[in-house]
Amino acid sequence: MYLTLFTGFTLGFLLPLMASRFGKFMPADAGTALASLFHRPRFSKGLTLAYKMQFKNLWMKLLGSCVLFGLILMSLYGMTDLYFSETSQIFIKIMIFLSLLLALVDAKLMLLPDVLTMPLLIFGFAYSVFGEGISPETSVLGALFGYFLPTVAVFLIYPLIKGGFGGGDVKMLAALGAWLGFVGLNLTLLLSCVVFMIFTLFTKEKSGPYGPSLAISALIVLFILTLNFEWLRPFLRIIQ
Known about the structure:
Helix content: over 70%
Mean pLDDT: 80
Order of helices and strands: HHHHHHHHH
Largest sheet: none
């Protein structure tokens, strides 16, 4: 357990640092992305005192975010060891890490890059085969539903409302569908609307990145379905 907590805090500490790097090299292939994530920043010499203070404040803010996400990921990894089987734990930890990284990147850049959504989709299929979650058939159905639902929705409302889901949002929905299946993805979509409305109340903006709402909702649904809360059973039977 101690190793899990240490690993969770370390990876969580790196999340904001990794997310801050995506704006420097995106779009990119997976190899370039991996190499660029571990680039050590260089600063110009001879900066004025005002610039030095600005850099110091930015680094302190980033450090605070690193500690916060370190604690968040440490807690989620600890819960994973408590509530998931050993066979499923490694897959779930990868899903949590990628989901949080996608949320941070989208919040910063309004972008959900393929170098993160595609591995999330692949590991979702792998989890259905080698883990102890949903069946492979349910995983494929969930991924297809996640891809085609926004496509059909935008097609129907396009004459009335211009614009729609971003390409990254569609790919993330497909990836989450591979993890959660049809039922889990429905719950995620419903919950993400509530989470997004809460975000808009705090930020007082009517639009913004949807990836963080999807990521948070998917993680909540993942643990709810695993813990098998009795009070959710009637609702699950209805939407099935």
